[in-house]
Design brief:
The complex is a heterodimer of chains A (about 500) and B (about 400).
Chain A: H1 2-15, E1 30-38, E2 46-54, E3 57-63, E4 72-83, E5 85-90, H2 118-125, E6 128-133, E7 147-154, H3 161-164, E8 165-175, H4 184-210, H5 215-222, H6 230-233, H7 262-268, E9 274-278, H8 284-293, E10 300-304, H9 312-318, E11 322-324, E12 329-333, E13 340-344, H10 345-351, E14 356-358, H11 368-377, H12 382-387, H13 391-396, E15 414-417, E16 428-433, E17 436-440, H14 445-452, H15 474-487
Parallel strand pairs in A: 1-4, 5-6, 8-9, 9-10, 10-11, 11-14
Antiparallel strand pairs in A: 1-2, 2-3, 4-15, 6-7, 7-8, 12-13, 15-16, 16-17
Chain B: H1 4-12, E1 27-35, E2 41-50, E3 53-59, E4 68-77, E5 79-84, H2 114-121, E6 124-129, E7 137-145, H3 152-155, E8 156-166, H4 193-209, H5 221-228, E9 233-237, H6 241-258, E10 264-267, H7 276-282, E11 285-288, E12 296-297, E13 301-302, H8 307-313, E14 318-320, H9 332-341, H10 346-352, H11 355-360, E15 378-381, E16 392-397, E17 400-403
Parallel strand pairs in B: 1-4, 5-6, 8-9, 9-10, 10-11, 11-14
Antiparallel strand pairs in B: 1-2, 2-3, 4-15, 6-7, 7-8, 12-13, 15-16, 16-17
Helix pairs in contact in B: 4-5, 4-6, 9-10
Classes of the chains: A alpha/beta (about 500), B alpha/beta (about 400).
Amino acid sequence: MMSRMLRIRPLLSCATVLLAAAPDAFAGGRIAIKAGRIITQAGPDILNGVIVIEDGRIQSVGPDEKAPWDAELLDHPDLVAFPGYVEANNSRGMDRPNENVDVAPFLDVRDSIDPISSYFEDSLRSGVLTINVQHGPPAPGSGGCVIGAQGMVVKPFGLTIEQMVVKPAAGIKISAAPKAGKSRATQAQAVRKAFTDLRLYLEKLVQDKKDGKDTARREALYQGRDLDKEENKKGRAMEGNATWKVKGLEAIPRGEIDDKQEPLLRLVEGQIPAFIYCDAAAAVPLALEIARDNGFLAGTTLVLDGDSWKAADLIAEAGVPVVLGSTLVHVERDPVTGKEKETFVPGVFKKKNVRFALQSLNPQAQSLWYQAAVCVGHGIERKDALDAVTRTPADILHLGDRVGSLEPGKDGNVLLLSGDPLSVSTTVQYVVLGGNLVYDRSQDVRVKHLLEGVEQPNTAPRGVEVQANPHDDEKETGADEEKKKNDAGEKKPEKEGGGQDREDP
Amino acid sequence: MIPIHALALALALVPAGRREDEPQRRWTIYADEIHTSTGRTLANGMVFVNNGKISLVSTGREESPERELLKVRAVTAGLVDASVRIDAELQSVEQSSEISPSVRVADSLDPFSIEWDRQVRSGVTTVLANPLDLDVVGGLGVVLKTAGPESIEARTVRADAVLRGAMGSQPSYGNHPAFGRPTDFFSRRPTTRMGVEWEWRKAFYDAAASRKDSERAYPGSDLVLRALDGDLTIAIQAWTTQDIRTAVFLKEEVERELGGHPRVLLDAAAEAWKEPDLLVRSKVGVVLPPFPSNGRTGEGSFMAWNVARMLHDRGVPIALSSHGSANPEDRLPLQAGYAMRGGLDFESALEAVTISPARMLGVEDRVGTVEVGKDADLVLWNGPPFEPGSRIVGVLVDGVLKVDPREQAE
């Protein structure tokens, strides 16, 4: 265990540019951030303002008054304070997330998220502080899914999922686009079948109960579920607005419902949001049909790609918000004239009054500020463009009371930027996350390397750095030092070498 | 979709002597800011365009019934990309010889390609079209406008503008020795980096020797001689430090040994930031490839984000380019923005996509700045140029409006 911690610590210090002060140093304390300009995203900008964060939550945001005497002070009159960007849907930061099973809502991205993935490191340095990690698609090469795993909202800082988590069970991914190897028709049937199977399963459960069979109970016990827990003990009539209902579900203790079906029942009962991926306009009707028939339209967000904007009328009528793919200007070639036509996608949804959030899939642009800037360039109001990367995604994730703006009571997440958030030369200088200063650009060795080509000695993780630690046992330390010597290029005679090279007599 | 009233206005304003089907080439453009690429920025300025040329650049406002009026936030010169590829594919690579200086890329270009329109929409009005770098010396590049009459000759600004070739592994990439009967395109030499450099050296030495011994001449050796004499710029693709050194050392070698004085442009010199002194000493210009998000780019090279600022500060002439990439993120106006993100000031970033490449290609008398007498190649912006929050709303090529700001109003 100790050796694992040892191995990870140097990795972290490189990967996330952890400051010398550990995150816990501020926790429970107060931090005051003075900035030349505060863009609150909740009213007019504040010039020369101060943000006070206590116990990880924003206590006050206002014009520069005296910062509390007992608060740690970050004084940057030359910088701009901005709430962290919010990513409404993302399929990166996971290790081997591709799932062969078509319908897998019983899986959780908790088990796939790789905390030291460079994706989270990049997110932190570009100021994306709240990320909804969802099973693919549209992750490149994800192969797609029918019904994917349960996603979770995380922050891009921490070594374990527990440290990173903002909101577990944040949504289930459904794909209206064909999974690899499926046609559009088989995909549609597979999505519909998943819910038919749920209904048939629940009906059988009720029938079995009436018939006095206790197979479900025995299976639940066999799977190790605690049926005496309060929420497992009780039955409850089926809730939600699905066009179908299973009568008599109140007779089934919730704990007896199979783990494989239970997440879908929560979806149908409106207890967990759905993120439905549409690769094209052709997929939108299926997405809306599934959500309507099974009663979770109100909790649905469409994740759009390709020419899905052509179904904007359908989407507006359904009243669901959308997350737009990274290509904001859709180009299509007229099959007859051969001319290319460009359509600015957010503009289409703006006109139809559909709420949209932006997504940063695009590797070159790296981040959400760029997507928002492109919107401004195409005539979207600056306020709406900034909302599409802060408030709107926060609302989509049902985190509107925690992130997306700088207001008292919200999470203490603050970016300190070198200039206007939408300017090409602006960079993130500091990140305060939950009241802790977790990023300082001047200490970011990878940025230095990227920007100036300067190779720092510890740009890349190099394994174990040995620090004097009384708890290290001798053997570990010895091995580490030997490794270090080898790394430094000191040649040791090869013990297994041929007879001539052998030094031992 | 031109509104009816605008059409009517356009017809009413057709000056006497111009046929109706001829494009309008007379404009008055009002802009909050005119970035001239000469170091001067005019606030609340105007540009007059007459018959495809710029006839006035000044501050103030002055309407004329002869010219239609366009109003925008900012104007720059049409962008110049010193490294693009239009429809370049294996079929456009000459296979008969690794050294094929006399092959003209112009002959492989399709004036009807959709690529031209894409270039125009991203504000690029003048390009150097290059061959693929699958030959050591691939042939002659051509500088041409991205719009205009539908023939390559009519669009050409400068024929035979550069002699184009490559260092590094690309010319030999995939090649294998032609034992027995050649099986495919790649059954040929060189197969190594050494081989590539040897082909270059042989081309120069044979050409030089052919001055006295006509036996040593080869097809196109006259062009290599012109390049040796500095009449014809040599553009060499060299991504890595290793290949940059090879190119620079070869240049210095032919200066020393053959008495040549070639003018050399290093194209795609991603690692030029590593040894700027070498470039200063040898007086070569640098064309940079698109900025990669993680620094990693062609042939395993690493391109630091401050490379443009750094070379500029050291006095190395730089031009930004899309390097023929089809990726929308690699388009030229974005590259200027990325260079600014890496620390280059706006004025130098502007020059690096306008007058600087124009000078490198020897077409600075016609394009690259907003000045009286130059071709009316103009880009009209709805905000500060190169910011992602701004957009190109209008493009004129030779005074013809190819992208109309009045259709872009939102």
